[in-house]
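Blinded run. Sample ID left blank on purpose so nobody reads anything into the name before looking at the predicted structure. Input follows.
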Amino acid sequence: MTQYKCFILSLEVGTWAGDIAKAELPDSFYVDYVRVYQKDK
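Blinded prediction complete.
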């Protein structure tokens, strides 16, 4: 039986980089790799 996993990625852009309203950002982007770690018990 296959168990599917779901991950929520935080891809936020915050105010640390300045006024986001003035930024020229792409309208989309792709995630091609996510590294997942298992927490030690």
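Unblinding after everyone has recorded impressions. The two ends are 26 Å apart (CA to CA).
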